[in-house]
Design goal:
heterodimer; A: 294 residues; alpha/beta; Rossmann fold; 6-stranded mixed β-sheet; 3-stranded antiparallel β-sheet; 27% helix; B: 281 residues; mainly alpha; ABC transporter involved in vitamin B12 uptake, BtuC; 14 helices; 83% helix; 0% strand; globular; ABC_BtuC-like (chain B); ATP-binding (chain B); Helicase (chain B)
């Protein structure tokens, strides 16, 4: 149950240590359901602007970790801080990008409404006060993802890629210091995967937003990843990509023979089939060619 | 043929009829119901709860029939039945498939029970028929007071919870992540539907509740994706159907529900055509 924690926060290394609080901080974190422990003794500090990919097989607690950070699930033990504060539901410190799921074509919602809900959808009331300020923020968020053109379009009639751009805008409209992404590239084609990762990368560089990116497939974000958190059956490793994504480390985590090969600029993991299929049997990701196939 | 048409479309003595107190009561009731139903309809459509509304209406019918039998107020029985249905359907959340079959089972049971209760009732036959197809004569000043209180309650709750409800109804995954109590809202919304349905049952009848609770929202969704515009349009359509239907039904002395359903349906068709044309343009 060891963890290799690299405490040096790469993107923030120009800054003196301790100048800014970690965007995300987990101390001795444990999560159990009854007798089953998903993970324990998890220590993780994510610096502002850092990009951390969370990898691992189904049921290893990747999404559960997001739920803890979102404040909708308490830790069984240990401590968690988001921008120095305990996580809170609807906190403006957090932006959340879900998996792309097709929206109903006749959903009574325009692009700008979807984005606006990310800003204040959790608040009671009709949202009639401070409408101008709200409109400006929504416009700015739409513009940042190149979505101004479909702000008035019914969301259900937009393409999956356009919808996912709106998802990015929805997550960023509150100006979060942490961006939590739950398989946001799943079922997107390669071009749209690139667009979404580019938008996320631009944001973290421009605003030092920390990114926690849950994915079953590291290649689309390989160039952006500062560190990897790899979870398998309660065991985990934290470290830079080249430290974690090795045959030795993954074989130890999976307790079976795993080979990690570098082919051009991609990582191919062989022998972890059980582990790297997406949680959703009904969704076959389009760009799934590199990992998991021998 | 023309005799039938003359029978259906007649305005003989309409002026006098409109002056009658029970007609005025009915028009006020319809206006209030139109506001409530129209405001809820777009959210009902967004949540895919048309069948749940139908099920709720049948349980309002069961409640009303039970109340008739034991000599309590039909309106109170309808509210009780509909609210119970609302709780049951609301607790089932948003899982469409499971909800569909449970509603089907509960609806059939409720309807059967209602028919049985009505058969045991030995009072006036028009009371029985009114529950199923509605009747404007049923609205008296007591009903009006109940209607006013319940409608105010529904509108107030809707105003306070509107944004999270819209969030939970249209984008449940992210709403959960943002800490919106989606499950609780699901129950609250189903109870709101139950209350509105219970108001609608005595006027348009259990069978035709969908024409005021669904049709306006479905029609509005065809022409606009703006939630606010959709709500206003749905209210306008619900008012048109209820008030127009009531006025049209007066002189012929035929059931109001047929007229209401017809107007709501025509509005839906018109909006659908309009939406199609705009999509092509």
């Amino acid at each position: 149950m060891g963890s290799v924690t690299s405490q040096s926060a790469q993107p923030a290394d120009t800054r003196p240590v301790g100048a800014a609080p970690a965007a995300v901080s987990l101390r001795g974190a444990r999560l159990s359901f009854g007798a089953r422990t998903l993970w324990h003794d998890l220590d993780l500090d994510i610096a502002p602007g850092e990009f951390v990919a969370v990898l691992g097989p189904n049921g290893s607690g990747k999404t559960t970790l997001l739920k803890v950070l979102l404040g909708i699930l308490p830790l069984s033990a240990g401590e968690v801080r988001i921008a120095g504060r305990p996580p809170r539901c609807g906190s403006p410190d957090i932006g959340y990008i879900p998996q792309q799921k097709a929206l109903e074509p006749d959903l009574p919602l325009r692009g700008r409404d979807l984005v606006g809900l990310g800003l204040d959808g959790h608040r009671p009331g009709l949202g009639l006060r401070s409408r101008r300020q709200r409109r400006e923020r929504v416009e700015a968020a739409l513009a940042a993802v190149g979505g101004t053109g479909y702000g008035d379009a019914p969301v259900g009639r937009l393409s999956g890629g356009e919808q996912q751009r709106l998802r990015v805008a929805q997550a960023l409209v509150g100006d979060p210091s942490v961006l939590l992404c739950d398989e946001p590239l799943l079922s997107l084609d390669l071009a749209h995967q690139r667009t979404v990762t580019r938008l996320i990368d631009e944001r973290r560089r421009a605003a030092s937003t920390a990114v926690l990116f849950v994915t079953h497939e590291i290649n689309p974000v390989l160039a952006l990843v500062d560190r990897v958190l790899y979870l398998v059956d309660g065991r985990f490793r934290i470290g830079r990509t080249e430290e974690v994504m090795t045959s030795a480390v993954l074989s130890e985590l999976y307790r079976s023979e795993i080979d990690v090969l570098r082919v051009r600029d991609r990582l191919v993991v062989v022998g972890a089939e059980d582990g790297c299929h997406p949680d959703h049997g009904d969704v076959e990701p389009v760009a799934h060619e590199a990992v998991c196939h021998e | 043929m023309s005799e039938v048409l003359d029978r259906i479309f007649s305005f003989d003595g309409i002026g006098g009829l409109l002056g009658l107190p029970f007609v005025q009561n009915a028009l006020i009731a319809c206006a209030v119901l139109g506001l409530v139903a129209g405001a809820l309809a777009p959210l009902i459509v967004a949540r895919g709860m048309a069948f749940a509304v139908h099920g709720t209406a049948e349980l309002a019918f069961t409640g009303g029939a039970a109340a008739l039998l034991i000599g309590a107020g039909v309106g109170i029985g309808a509210v009780a039945g509909a609210v119970v249905a609302g709780f049951v359907f609301g607790l089932m959340g948003l899982r469409q498939r499971e909800r569909d079959s449970v509603i089907g089972v509960v609806l059939a049971f409720g309807l059967g029970l209602g028919v049985l209760l009505l058969a045991l009732y030995s009072g006036r036959a028009s009371n029985k028929f009114g529950l199923l197809t509605g009747s404007i004569v049923s609205v008296d000043s007591t009903n009006l007071a109940v209607l006013g209180v319940v409608a105010t309650l529904v509108v107030l709750v809707l105003a306070v919870l509107y944004r999270p409800l819209l969030f939970a109804s249209t984008d449940p995954d992210v709403a959960v992540a943002r800490g919106v109590p989606v499950r609780l809202l699901s129950v609250v919304f189903a109870v709101l539907i139950g209350l509105a349905t219970a108001l609608a049952v005595p006027i348009v009848g259990a069978v035709l509740v969908l024409s005021v609770m669904i049709a306006p929202g479905a029609a509005a969704a065809q022409v606009t994706a703006n939630p606010l515009a959709a709500s206003l349009l749905a209210i306008a359509i619900a008012e048109l159907a209820l008030l127009g239907g009531t006025v049209l039904s007066l002189a012929p002395g035929l059931p109001v529900s047929g007229y209401v359903a017809a107007i709501a349906f025509l509005c839906y068709v018109a909006c659908r055509v309009l939406g199609r044309v705009r999509l092509r343009a």
